[in-house]
Specification:
Blueprint: E1 4-6, E2 9-11, H1 24-36, E3 39-43, H2 50-61, E4 68-73, H3 83-90, H4 101-109, E5 114-119, H5 125-138, E6 142-148, E7 157-161, H6 172-184, H7 195-204, H8 209-217, H9 224-231, H10 247-261, H11 265-274, H12 283-290, H13 300-309, E8 314-316, E9 323-325, H14 328-341, H15 344-365, H16 371-380, H17 382-394, H18 398-407, H19 409-414, H20 418-430, H21 438-449, H22 457-460, H23 463-473, H24 483-490, H25 494-497, H26 512-531, H27 535-552, H28 556-571, H29 575-591, H30 595-611, H31 615-632, H32 646-657, H33 659-670, H34 674-681
Parallel strand pairs: 3-6, 3-7, 4-5, 5-6
Antiparallel strand pairs: 1-2, 8-9
């Protein structure tokens, strides 16, 4: 979900899908607790409405949290080791850092009041408790609002038990059922004639919000009296005697079971098979993973529409962006049925194979016009990608994990997931310490590629040799290998590195990895020339990089060409051209989620706008640049003290504006949220509307 900016406040809270009903006492209590307590945990059984109450409470409180109000959804997270990564991603912290990620998260959240909403903690309780304790200890202005079926057990935790809605003909349970019934059947209205029946339905369901919402939808097919009769029928047999549940859990399970009973056999089968997805799915994925036996792929779209109509599945987006998802409780019910059918392993394997295929397609098409689509698609499928990687790592054949983690090199490297990718690649490679073959070679190269950050230069210097192996395995031409020279340049040894890069030949046309490496060679050559103030030669190489990318319809690496054209424009005294090119680069980097690249371009815009005489804007951009670099967890790329203009423009801005105004403008830029900051850098209003 995209970050939003309203009145200077930032966050990622999703819009509420429908009107919030009742719970006014609980909302008032949450508001009061967030003013005095640093950790508030909403507890209660599944389906009681903890998540929705936390979201409403966070929306109501966000005016008081200028540092942001951030939702971290944990229901789909199965590996507790990825909790810190998940928090970092939700709060828009780029992961390209080799220092401890939790330390980077703490620094990222520090500086202004921040509310972190951790939703559904119970299945990774110990890790949630550890992370929350660390965050609270290191971020003084942080408040945490958690939801969990049991307490986190962290010192200072304040528990608020969420009970079912109050019953009675004029209480919240009746109000919720009535509102949802009217949404499902517009002609429905509460009246003296049906009030007692509605109250009886609410009592039968113990006022559990999820149960009430599921039951309300059934009014599309049944009159109210039949609905009440159905809730008194035979569905308690769905409760496993081997795992006794609380009465409320039995009631909720009964309601879901009743919805299940009202589905056709094919709808039930699809429901069960869809339970293997994490974080949602699109139609293509459902058709591949869920077809088989009596369920034809051609039937799945219509069945999805029917399950959506019955509120088993939720549909989001329009057109090609349509995705589907299930509530966690509904998904768990389907998973139990899938296991009972004996299909769980086979369907999980199809899920794994679909995302292996997706990764291979993405790699093949990354350097092309579909690049932004692939960045957005794989970011949307992040939870499913993780699940597929974990399935591969658990498979007896180590080659599957090597292939999948290696094929995703572009996702790890270019879309801000380097730390996560590095961890997965290391786990895959540990299974085959003496491995060989194309999958192993690809994984070795991908692992070394994702270490190409200023913090880890020694590892970066081995990526060229690894690419030689990759090229040989794929029977490709071996291009010039400039990465050793690039790593020396980052350390300020530009004169020595200048003799290390070779002449760049034409990129081979048949392989995404080879084309990427050739384009990377051009970008690094432009970097080396700029570091020596050879701006005309830098511009020529950058223009060639842009031309090569234009042939491919490529966006991400083309933005580096724009970056170096802008850099050369500043050095040659053409600031207007520099601003245009830098804005083109920033637009592209932001669209493909390259936060590190966006930080580098924002830094360049400081100098470009200062050179145009836009001193106040340049000072705000300096604040934006500092925030983006801080979020990325990295110092500025290379050695700023060795560049031609970096320190000089900061000195000029301070001299022109005066110390006080300069400091104020920098602060104004630093306090903008990400979307507002990028909008301002692109020349629009700082509300994110231009993106």
């Amino acid at each position: 979900m995209a970050a939003s900016v309203q009145g200077g406040r930032i966050g990622n809270l999703p819009a509420e899908a429908n009107a919030f009903v009742g719970r006014q006492l609980e909302l008032a209590e949450i508001a009061g607790l967030l003013g005095t307590q640093r950790l508030v945990t909403l507890t209660g059984p599944g389906g009681v409405g903890k998540s929705r109450l936390a979201l409403r409470g966070a929306h109501a409180a966000k005016a008081g949290f200028l540092g942001g109000t951030w939702l971290v959804e944990l229901s789909e997270l199965r590996d507790p080791d990825l909790l810190t990564n998940t928090v970092a991603q939700a709060t828009r912290l780029t992961e390209q850092t080799l220092r401890p990620l939790l330390q980077a998260v703490c620094e990222h959240l520090a500086g202004a009041p921040v509310l972190l909403v951790l939703d559904t903690c119970e299945h990774i309780l110990d890790e949630c408790a550890r992370i929350v304790q660390e965050l609270l200890a290191n971020v003084p202005e942080l408040r945490v609002l958690a939801t969990s079926r049991q307490p986190l057990g962290v010192p200072g935790e304040h528990l608020l038990t969420v009970a079912p809605l109050p019953l009675g003909e004029r209480d919240d349970a009746v109000a919720l059922f009535t509102a949802r019934a009217a949404a499902a059947v517009p002609s429905f209205a509460l009246s003296d004639a049906n009030r007692a029946h509605v109250a009886a339905v609410c009592a039968r369901l113990d006022g559990i919000p999820l149960a009430l919402e599921l039951a309300a939808v059934r009014l599309r097919g049944f009159p109210l009296d039949r609905l009440l009769e159905g809730l008194d029928s035979r569905f308690d047999l769905l409760v496993s005697p081997a795992r006794p549940r609380l009465a409320r859990h039995q009631t909720l399970r009964t309601t879901i079971g009743w919805s299940h009973e009202l589905c056709t056999p094919l709808e039930r089968l699809l429901w069960a098979r869809l339970s293997v997805f994490a974080g949602g799915w699109d139609v293509e994925a459902a058709e591949f993973v869920c077809h088989g036996g009596p369920l034809d792929a051609e039937e799945i779209l219509a069945l999805l529409a029917s399950l959506t109509e019955k509120s088993i599945v939720t549909r989001d987006g329009e057109g090609s962006a349509v995705r589907y998802r299930m509530l966690d409780t509904v998904r768990s019910f389907g998973a139990e049925w899938l296991s009972g059918l004996g299909e769980a392993e086979a369907v999980r394997r199809r899920h794994r194979d679909y995302f292996r295929w997706t990764a291979r397609q993405g790699e093949a098409e990354w350097l092309g016009p579909g690049q932004r689509m692939w960045a957005e698609r794989l970011t949307a499928e992040h939870a499913n990608v993780r699940l597929a990687v974990e399935e591969c790592l658990a498979a007896p054949e180590p080659e599957t994990a090597l292939e999948l983690t290696g094929s995703l090199w572009f996702f790890w490297f270019a879309c801000g997931f380097t730390e996560e990718g590095r961890g997965y690649l290391e786990r895959a490679l540990r299974r085959t310490p003496d491995g060989s073959g194309p999958e192993h070679t690809l994984a070795v190269w991908a692992h070394r590629l994702v270490t190409v950050v200023p913090d880890d230069l020694e590892a970066a210097e081995s990526v060229s040799a690894a690419y030689v192996w990759l090229a040989e395995e794929r029977q490709l031409p071996v291009p010039a290998l400039p990465l050793t020279g690039a790593s020396l340049a980052v350390r300020g040894e530009s004169a020595r590195s200048a003799v290390l890069y070779g002449r760049v030949g034409q990129a081979p046309a048949a392989d995404g990895g080879a084309e990427f490496f050739q384009l990377l060679t051009l970008a690094l050559q432009a970097y080396l020339l700029a570091s020596q103030a050879a701006f005309e030669r830098c511009a020529a190489v950058a223009e060639r990089l842009r031309a090569e990318c234009a042939k491919l319809g490529e966006l991400w690496m083309r933005a580096w060409g724009d970056f170096f054209v802008s850099l050369a424009g500043i050095g040659l005294g053409h600031p207007d051209e520099a601003v245009r090119s830098a804005r083109e680069a920033l637009t592209a980097k932001w669209r493909v989620h390259d936060r590190l690249g966006a930080a580098a371009v924002a830094d360049l815009l400081v100098a470009a706008q200062a050179a145009r005489g836009e001193e106040e804007l340049a000072a705000r951009l300096l604040g934006i640049s500092r925030r983006l670099w801080h979020a990325a967890g990295l110092p500025q790329l290379g050695r700023p003290d060795r560049t031609v203009f970096h320190r000089e423009y900061e000195r000029r801005l301070r001299a022109s504006l005066g110390d006080a105004r300069f400091a104020e403008a920098v602060r104004e830029g630093r306090e903008l949220g990400p979307e507002a900051a990028i909008a301002l850098a692109l020349g629009g209003a700082p509300d994110g509307s231009d993106l």
